[in-house]
Batch of 4 targets.
Target 1
Amino acid sequence: GRVPFTHDLDRTLEHDLIRAELVSLPLALIVLIVVFRTVVAAALPVGVGALAVVGGIAVVLSLSRHTDIAQFTINMCSLIGLGVAIDYSLFLVSRYREELAAGKGHRDALVRAMGTAGRVVGFSGVAVATGLSGLFFFDGSYLRAMGIGGVIVVSLAVIFALTFLPALLAVLGDRIHAGRIPLPAIGGGGLWHRTAMRVMRRPLLFLLPTLGVLLVMGVPFLRLRFAAADVHVLDGTVEARRSFDLLLQHFPDQGANRITLAVRFPSAPALTPERAAAVGELAHRVELLPHVRKVESPLSGAMIPVGQDTVVLYAISDAAPETDAAADLVRAIRTDRRVADGLLLVGGETAKNVDATSYVVSRAPKAVSLVVGATLLVVFLLLGSVILPIKAVIMNFLSIAGSFGALVWVFQEGHLFVSEGRPVEPSLPVVLFCVLFGLSMDYEVLMLSRMKESYERSGDNTSAVADGLERSAGLITSAAAIMVSVFGAFALAHVVLLKAVGFGMALAVAIDATLVRVLLVPATMRLFGHLNWWEIGRAHV
């Protein structure tokens, strides 16, 4: 039943959240220790991330007193909050330590870090929050609440990173280097500089194969099919799923796809002779449709109560609820809604799939337009360039396309660690797009801002790209490793929907930090040359 499924889904999500956080936080701390090689510096981003998540969840739970909040919203707050808060803190602490290493005093280093990395964090936060605000278009669904929760936790991540963290750095002073661990430095800048120069010497040689790989990865997305979450999103260890499998095995008619037909009449009684004849004709018409085994109705002797002005029938179909055949059956039944003087309404799992898909598809263009338009504006205000925002959006689409294609290949078509493929939940691509479009801007903004700093000093596009990559690629790799650790921990979930979100985000971040940032960005920057920095006026923000 629906209630046991919802109860078990919420409980499983709670357990998945606890397990994911127990896995992701230590992994993030390990990556930070390897990056910073001191315990204190590594602990700061994890602490800020924990604060942002706890604060975000507290605000969301407070809102739940006034509006419905799905359990999945709490999981997403934790997922997004940990990732962005740790990343933002990593950007700031890294720039602060870089300025200290360059010989600046603690105060000057902190001022410089806030003026550079702090500015990037602010713009990145706006980009991520704007991406999540695309979910506001899906009013009446849990997506809107998820967007509100996401915007709250990202805002807190930015606030803590720009206030609490600098205050901690000022108080710590030299103790930022406490707890030094004798580990070798990673991500030598010379390697990234050489990589950038190699790519820019033959940009098309690197650009075309990389584009080919991403497009091939994205091809399975063309085979995307939708189905709303049901008991199949739970694995076989959960009671609701076990009971459903037993029902289907021993009582196939009870476990079969039951399409609900409700006929509501304008007055009582529901079954006057004329209306009863019309209901009988409806049952006969539906029984003749493909994939209908039989129709249960009060007139056929089925134990179905009749309301004062409503009659309910059940069409038993041999097509599974999530199949195209079942969806076509629902549409065929809905083609004629008049039953005498009554109105036919069609419900059930398949009808929910059809309506949920229609709902998401009808609102998705507005959400995508908002996210893309706002991203273009944010990057333009930060960099002043006309070309770079357009390129940034295209790069985002490429990395997301690769991730979406892999998502369909793994979860819908049942490859790798998924033994039972099923259509994708309609809201999943929307959630991933809105989240990932903003998150991808983190790395784009960080890298391009370092390139711009260098270009303003030298006026040489090629050296600016190499210098920017040299100074940011190691940090981006570290930040991506943290994101992949956090998101990958959620991919261990027992709920397929949460597993798919974690996997999709982890893969998109990995693609973004490797193929896109290391190969596509230098190649396209070289091809566009000084046109990269073409400005309409000069934006100072």
Target 2
Amino acid sequence: MHTNRQARSSEHGDFAPKDASKDTPENPNRWQARFRALTPLKQRLLLTFIAILAGGLQFLSYAPLSWWWTAWVDLALLIFAFFCAADWKSSVVVGFSWATATALFSLPWIGSFVGIGPYVALSIVLGLLAIPAALAMWLIAQSSFPLALKLPGMAAALVAGEALLARWPFGGFPWLRVAWGQVDGPLAPAVAIGSTALVTFLAACVGAGLVALTLRSYATSAALLVGALFVGWALPAWTQPLPEPTAADNARVAVIQGNVPRLGLEFNAQRRAVLQNHADATNELARRVHQGKEQQPDIVIWPENSSDVSPFTDGEAARIIENAAMNIGAPIVVGTFTYTNGVQNTMVVWAPQTGPGDQHEKIYLQPFGETMPFRELLRHFSDMVDHAGDMTPGNGDAVVTTPGTDGLKKVNLGLATCYEVVFDGAFRNAVNHGATMLATPTNNATFGFTDMTYQQLAMSRMRAMEFQRSTAVAATSGVSAIVDAHGDVVKQSKIFEQKVLTETLPQYSHLTFAARFGTWIEGLLTAFGILCVVGAVLRRRGGDARAGADEVDGRDTEQNMH
């Protein structure tokens, strides 16, 4: 009877050893035995430490450090912790600690804007929202599946957790996706095949491969590591080659970083000064063009909120923008506000002679910033809720088109305004509606010299790789940049300087696999993770039922023997 129970214990994924010397790749008895020998309190404390360490390593993979390889170690530690967790409560501790630590390390720039309280609260909420994925990964880890299925299943469950957080609650907050930390690593090219979900999955597979290596399951480890690197690096080069551009497709782009006055002005004067700064920088570029020191731009891109004083309601603001457009002789994409459908964060093409044209109203609004969920309820706890906006989202295709008159090139510009760049659907929608070039106009002056602007630039670089489009990042105070279709930064400004970036960039009209099927790839990976969880639960229940029946049979047999 003892032998049968031991066999059943191994079959159902209970790694508590009966003979630790019989260590196999599928049954990591030795290190798990040592861990399970600890008291429950020591186990939880050690798991918490591992999870916090993993969260710190995840932070190191993000810009500006961009140590992409630390995410691989991070995910290996996370998967290792789920193998060690003795019960579901321990898995909750692991998932919550990991996600909360990642947020606390990565998002202190939020505290510079709203204070430490909301920043810590958001980090805790993100930790809570990671619990479903943590439970899923733990169930798969403790299942009776072979290791070769467990590990990619856990990677897929992590993708499923990110997919949920990208959509819910309040429209989602996918700022801390694993993929963002891989922009400089060998897995990043896979974004052109399966968007950010595939990059996260591959990074998790590398981490899983490292775990398999420690378990001495060498074949599984090799399959995961080599497979991830092949799909991440070699396969995109073969299946998604960047077309050779022609000179006729090129457009001259100017990105204006007007900078912001930091001291000494009241609110309205500050807004007008920001507008004037961008106009002045554009006028200086016009002077250099007229002197033959710069090429004539086909399009000029200003940042989000570059005209906080709306030219649609303020005649002086309209005059300043019109004069700048006339001086430069090219359409300017201006960040402002419109009021025909509530208050909307709008990018508008302002052309010489004809004035305002195509518009993009921001679709993905920032909760607790541009909108305020539960405003009336939360007002009882803090008056800070009244600092949040009450904006109306747009519903367009995120593409604005310049007229292409007077010898200028026509540009179909796909826009993701600031926070929108974090959402897969923003640029995907634009590219599928004909965008030949992309831009991320952003207002990050509030966040000063923090990591926020570098993290956002990394996202724009990843999007450039995903859709193989030249991408302009126009920031009020930096960092502004011009990014080529490979995701490489061609030119870049510093923070808090007035800077004009110009470059001749190719326009592309082809669609990457990610543009056409990225949503399906994410859905398939998510479905795979969910199926693994369902299978783990069913096999666990079936195993428990069989074990219970065997116990009853065993007792009956013993009674009959007596």
Target 3
Amino acid sequence: MGVYVNPTYPYQAPTDLRSTPPQRRPLIIVGAGPVGLAAAIDARLHNLPVLLLDEDKTVSVGSRAVCYAKRALEILDRLGVGEMACSKGVSWNVGRTFLNEEEVYQFNLVPDAGHKRPGMINLQQYHLEEMLIARAQALGADIRWQHKVISVQKHDDHALLRVETPDGEFDIEADWLVVGDGARSPIRRQLGLDIEGRVFMDRFLIADVIMKADYPAERWFWFDPPFHPGQSVLLHKQADNVWRIDFQLGWDADPDEEKKPEKVIPRIQAMLGDARPFELEWVSIYTFQCRRMNDFRHGRILFVGDAAHQVSPFGARGANSGFQDTDALMWKLALVMQGQAPDALLDSYAQEREYAADENILNSTRSTDFITPKSRASRHFRNAVLDLARDHTFARKLVNSGRLSVPSFLVTSALNTPDADAFAGDMVPGAPMDDAPIAVDGQPGWLLDQVGNRFQCLYFVGDAAVLTEAERETLDAMQHDSPAIEPVLVASKPTTAQGLRVLHDVQGLMAKRYDARPGTTYLLRPDQHVAARWRHLAQNAVVAALHRATARA
């Protein structure tokens, strides 16, 4: 066993960034946490030059964000680090909830087969940050460590940043500024921007424990366990034999006292119930809040991740929703910066992700109120549910130990084209795409590995080799729109079509999940959300939907 040692990244003097008047950069991102790094990677995948500034010189301390949900893993796949994260992390689908020592509820995040990624992986944030940094640098992102942004001024066509370094201060301008500087967001405070919501009066102890244990890779949550009576406890397995344990302490707990080893170690020993050896890697006390900014966009300044919104950790919505922020933002910003869409497209980023933040805050607040009831009525309700759950199946689904992160269905987005035809299933306009097994040129693969980063048109056919002349002309014409739409055929038979990419729906799961039959057509956004769908292919309808999805309608 051994404690993780943070890497140190080299400082580079800002000689090339200093100028009088200040130098102007097309895109600056502030904050090299997971969300800022994801934004930088996505920028490079869209061929945008990016300067990333961070005040530190290493990755985060402690596990912090631990659980990465299926949709976040699919985004990480698109960014090029999903496989590495899943190989290092601990995959799991099953969660169990206990009252005392009796199991009262369990769930499976991915009950159906035919998905590439699990419902969750557990991976310490510092490991993921290392992977993201390496990927960003490999793609050519300019990352500057120990560059602290100490002030920001908002202008109509740019933002002016004042940056502090070991070699002094300098000014630099950004055509566009993406702010991912965390929950305390100095930039948000400097600009005097509001953030509203609830602060929950409770304290929790995080202990990252290095030990060998044969517990399964599942999420275990206890209400009122005998080893920590009257409170709750959460257990997760992470990489490298590190186990994350969260102990509820109550609002009156003294944070300084509770972090001392002589207080932490007996709690862990009581939980384990044996004398097995362990090491403490990291200990912290946290409180939490559910709140968000009123507006995620302020002209040329765009807020992402915890800088824009915060939720309690129950449900793993923090980093997961942050990745979805950048997923929704960067393709739009690329189109605007490249002159292929008006900057009004960025208003849809704010609208979509504010809607998602409200959804996350609602679910997170409900979980937190159940776990930490603060009124007599809510405590009576919680206790009654737990008592009933011992013997009654219906009550077990009411046990809320943290409804886990799921992607938002952006059904209210102005970018969606409403259905004109009848469809069944979940793949409505605004939905994040479901994965499915496919084959390409006889090689097995996954649908979501074949889409993203650009607009695409999925066209379902029986035999890709027998397209009509009209179908071929329509599909070819899409590639000349601006931005271009890539046509992709989905065939029920293992056939090919000259000059077109063909996905073979090997198990029929694509047709099932997308309620598709020959002729069904889907317009897909670069972030793997559905923009529109039809029962028949019509170029004018697809082009109109593209214009709507790029705010040109």
Target 4
Amino acid sequence: QQSAESRPVELSMVSPDFSGHGAAYAATGNAQVVQGRFEDAVVSYRRALEINPGDIKSFVNLGNVLSELGRKEEAITAYRQVIDRNPGFVGAYHNLGHVLLDLDRAAEAIEVYRRALRADPDHPMVLVDLGAALYHQNKHDEAIACYRRALEANPGDAEIHYNLGVALAKKGALDEAIASYREALRLNPDSAETRDNLANTYLRRGELDEALACYREACRLGPKRAAATYSNLLFSLNYHPAWTPQAIFEEHRHWGETYAPRPEKQPAHGNSREPERRLRIGYVSADFREHSVAFFIEPVLTQHDRERFEIYCYAQVAAPDAVTGRLKQLAAHWRSIVGLDDRQAADRIRADEIDILVDLSGHTAGNRLGVFAHRPAPVQASFIGYPNTTGLPAMDYRIVNPWIAPPGSEVYFTEKLVYLPSPPCFRPAADCPPVNVPPALDSGRVTFGCFNNLAKLAPPVIALWAAVLQAVPGSRLMLKSQPFNDAGTRDLFHARFAAHGVGPERLLLRGSDPLREYLRCFNDVDIALDPFPYNGGTTTYHALWMGVPVVALEGRNSVSRIGYGVLATLGLKELAAKTPADYVTIAAGLAADPGRLQALRASLRERMRASPLTDGKRYTAALEKLYRDIWGNWCVNTK
């Protein structure tokens, strides 16, 4: 989310009268700022203000320099003194609001911006600032209104169109967001950031080719942010049915060779090489929050043997929530790395003498793969959070299971594969609704369902699901995802299914809900359909926990074998199809057998409870053995 962001220290353009030597001190402070001597400039501005307390210009410049030095509270005092003396000086409100936002005091910043608008109701810069502050408080409708007002005065401002697009996308108004991004690009075609966000919006609507084209153009336009943009591109390739596992692997390797950071040679690690001593394990993630990763890392953090393993969590979490608080209690040490660059974060990890550093993000949003490139720990591994290789040369291991990575899969990973015996362990939500009877028993019609994100619903998926609906007369398909809050996205999917002879009356398109209501919606589904080539993950676990059987298609690489692995672990391999034709047959067969549907509905939760999929103690013990093995390997093979 861009706004008129804090800039390098700028000198105020206000020009009040000076008298005596105060003007000389002010001029000296200005010269010291130009030379980068900020501490000296503070002294000069304060001396100027002792002589001329009404020198608004020096108050503003003092606030700017103090802010640059990180002395935020002092900067706030300086800006407030300007406002007290000159309530109509909008620039002081602007700077004060930015400092308050830096301190995560959005409510105060909003009040400051509202005061500025009382002085100048249509000031576009203040409207943009207020919109940004409201956005950060998740008040998206109010933020959108501010940006629209700012555009009335500045319709040709590409940055405001961009900000409007960000807010619209966050709200879920994807059609309007795309229009705003396109207008921003018309005004500023060279904005890599706008093109990157446009690609993200296309991806959310399942427009994969458009997303890929935008990502590639963003990489060309913005080489400084190309590593992050290319990560977005890699993530999107997992969804694309036309890309082979080998081609996707080559793109990941290309990222590692071309875009991954290349830090200078690091000193050797001084970690003690005792194979059986207590190990320090570090987990790095942007998803220690209300996110699907939390369902899988919480059992591990809960069950770790504290006597043999000391746990550190490195959190790239800008907006902590209740889940963050819960996870924080499970780690011996919690380190926020928000605001630290890769080198700073790596230095902090190295100072903690971490033995094994574990990535939980891969190429997903907020990842810190650049930290791993600095090799702050002697052993580094990629685990849950991303279903593919990282391509990063400094990543030693990829932790997998035999279901998703059978023999031969190693050719698609730059890391060495190490195996756990089962798919990731899952912590069901504490307040899950009870399991009901199959809704078809009451309604007389079968409802299929998929609650995955729309990027997974590629044209081959829609074609196959249309065949399932045609094979089961009267059946319906419920699709649930946040973008369906947008009418344009609903129209788009109605058209995609209509092309295969499925009318809108057979589709139930629902938007997002809080977790409990989302889970309750599984009570309206008889059979879940797993997408491909990128299978469902958390949604598959949720469906099964809610008693809904899942029909999957067994694929060739890790992203397309997730559903098969989960079903096989539960002893339900018969629900995993080998071919698309088998997929239709299995789904139609289940739909025609209400007795089996009822039996599965009644038994799946207990089956999950009795399986490795929810046995956190057994799963974590296996993980700890794996850690001990790879640590022992480092002790033996590293000089």
